[in-house]
Amino acid sequence: MDDVTEFLAIRQLYNAAIKQVRTKLEILNDGFQVEHCHNPIHHIECRLKSPGSMLEKLRRKGYPIEMQSLREGILDIAGVRVVCNYLNDVNLVADLLLSQDDIRLLKKKDFISNPKPNGYRSLHLIVSVPIFLAGTTEHIPVEIQIRTIAMDYWASLEHHLKYKTENDVSDSLKCRLKHDADLLSAIDADLQDIFCQMNA
C-alpha cells in the first residue's frame, strides 16, 4: 500500500470513528428525552483534522513525518464537540458515554473544575472507539469536548478575537475576556439552579 492510499485509509478510519461517537451520543440524547423529558445535548459538531494540520502538529511535536507517527502521536485527528444545555448535563453526557462497554477512556482533562488561566472551560475526553472492518477491528482515538452553550459561546468568540487578528491582544483585553468567562460561568450556575427548581 503506497503512502497516499494508506493516508486515505487512515482518514476513513477516523471519519468512521467520528460517525460512531456521534451516533452513540444521538442515541443517548434521544433515550434521555424519552425517559426524563429532557435533552441534555443542544447540538453536536464534528471535525476531521486537515492533512496540513496533521503535518504541522507532527513537526511541532518533533515526530517523523510518517503514518505510524500520525496514528501514535496525534490523538485529536478525529474531534467531536458536544454542546449541552445546562452545566450538569456535561458530566451526565460524559458518564453515559463512558459507561458503554466498547468505549475506553484514554485521557481526561476537566477545564470546568479547573479552568485555564484565560477563562476557558470545557471537559475534554480522549476515548478509543472500535471500528469493525472486514476481518479485523481497529481501535481509533477520538477527542470529545463537552461544554455548555455559554462555554461554547465564549470559546468561539475568544478564538475569533485572538486568532483572527494580526494585532497582539493586550493584557487589559485578556483580563476583560477572563472576566466575561467568569460572568458566563456564574450565569451557567444560575440557569442550572433555575432549571432544577422548575423541575423539582
Describe the overall structure.
The longest helix has 34 residues, at 3-36. The protein has helices at 3-36, 51-61, 67-73, 87-98, 149-163, 171-198, and strands at residues 41-48, 78-84, 104-110, 123-133, 136-148. It has 2 domains: 3-149, Beta Polymerase, domain 2 (2-Layer Sandwich), CATH 3.30.460.10; 154-199. The chain has 6 helices and 5 strands; from the N terminus they run αβααβαβββαα. With 200 residues, the chain is α+β, with helices and mostly antiparallel strands.
Name the features.
RelA_SpoT, GTP diphosphokinase activity, flat, NT_sf, transferase, alpha+beta, 54% helix, GTP_Pyrophosphokinase, 2 domains
CATH class descriptor of the largest domain: Alpha Beta
**In total, how many domains does the architecture comprise?**
2
Q: Could you state the order of secondary-structure elements as H and E?
A: HEHHEHEEEHH
Q: Choose one word for the global shape.
A: flat
Distance between the termini: 60 Å
Q: Quick one: biggest sheet?
A: 5 strands, mixed
Q: Any chance you could write out the topology, listing elements then pairs?
A:
Blueprint lengths: L2 H34 L4 E8 L2 H11 L5 H7 L4 E7 L2 H12 L5 E7 L12 E11 L2 E13 H15 L7 H28 L2
Parallel strand pairs: 2-5
Antiparallel strand pairs: 1-2, 3-4, 4-5
Task: Summarize the model shown.
It is built from six helices and five strands. A hairpin with a 2-residue loop joins strand 4 (123-133) and strand 5.
